[in-house]
Amino acid sequence: MSEPVVPAFSLARRNLIRGGALAVGAAGASAAIGALNATTAQAANGDAIVAGQTTTATAGTVLTGHMIASAALTLNNTNGAALNLTPTTAGPTMTVGNVVGRATGPEVVVDYGDGTELTYLATGFDLPPTTLAFAPERVMDTRSAAYRDLVMDASSSSWFDSSKRVKAGAWIDIPLASVQPGLDLSAVFLNVTAISAPSKGNLTVYPSGEDAPTASNLNYPATTSIANMCFVAPAVVGDAWCVRVKVNVAAVHVILDFSGAVGYFPSGNQEVAGRAAQARRQKLTAIRGESVGKRLTKGLNLPQ
Fold first, then answer.
1. Within 10 A of 53 (CB to CB), how many other CB atoms are there?
2. What's the pTM?
3. Is the distance from CB of 72 to CB of 85 less than 8 angstroms?
4. 117 with 89: CB under 8 angstroms?
5. Could you give the CA distance from residue 61 to residue 226 in angstroms, rounded to a whole number?
6. DSSP-derived 3-state class of residue 146
7. Residue range 128-169, pLDDT digits in tens
8. N or C: which end of the chain has fewer CB within 10 A?
9. Which residues, in sequence order, are bridge partners of residue 85?
10. CB 148 within 8 A of CB 227
């Protein structure tokens, strides 16, 4: 196999070519720099460092090492930190598909037609988020004391009026899902309903902890109910992912239904959803005998 090609954009992060040569400027190095084992010899500028031999060098010495493929070179500096040089390119002994571990993440050997080279291997942090859709889960209904008790935070302790409606100018943080390992929500699909307002008004749904935007998600008439879908980024409040609902004008009862999410999910969800586009498009109805919505909201003690 021919020597692998290293793309120009990645040369800056390549330290050692397997099967090739290493050139390191040792200016500033002090005292002795030891290498592998065996005998000791004085290294002049440009001398090779031979595997299996201990070599000393003085400040300003340029070290050039000719090493076998996949070998690593460690220089032990008695007056400072050791220098550990590991191969970073795909050597002659590596084939397409081989994976190399790096401190910055795994890399894989590929060949785009002009020789083998290393490129980053995608991990969970590199892949796009998954979109989940599920049967709506009711997460708030201010007409019910059980739901009102779920409010994580509010603009004040007296955020509702005598009819238990959210007051004009007040806001509440509504929990959508319990914080759990592997769950990272980017956005959520919600249906917000306004009901029993004494006069027409409007409300806004937005990320908890942020300043209220000037736009509204729902404009409602007096006395009757009206609903609208919204797509909002949630935020963590306490031990739950939440959104904030602010009533801007006219007190009103708020009903919120949770029906989908975009993000990274615990392994139980990934077993069904996966990360492939085809799997993400599938209609998700159940996970381990539970609806996706119930699984995400588990721990919130939602009223049945």
1. 14
2. 0.57
3. yes
4. yes
5. 79
6. helix
7. 788 999 989 999 999 999 999 999 999 999 999 999 999 999
8. C
9. 73
10. no
The token pair at 45 is 């500028």
What tokens appear for 294 in the block?
């119930």
Tell me how many degrees the CA angle 278-279-285 measures, rounded to the nearest 5.
135
Please give the radius of gyration of the chain, using alpha carbons only, rounded to the nearest integer.
Answer: 31
SS3 content of the chain, % helix, strand, coil (to 5): 10, 40, 50
d(CA 277, CA 182) in angstroms, rounded, equals: 20
Structure tokens at 177: 């899902």
**Backbone phi, then psi, for 281, in 5-degree steps?**
-80, -15
User: What three-state secondary structure class fits 79?
Assistant: coil
* 3-state SS, residue 258: strand
What pLDDT is attached to residue 273? 36
* Count of alpha carbons within 13 angstroms of residue 127, beta-carbon side: 17
**How many other C-beta atoms lie within 10 A of the C-beta of residue 293?**
26
End-to-end distance of the chain based on CA atoms, in angstroms? 65
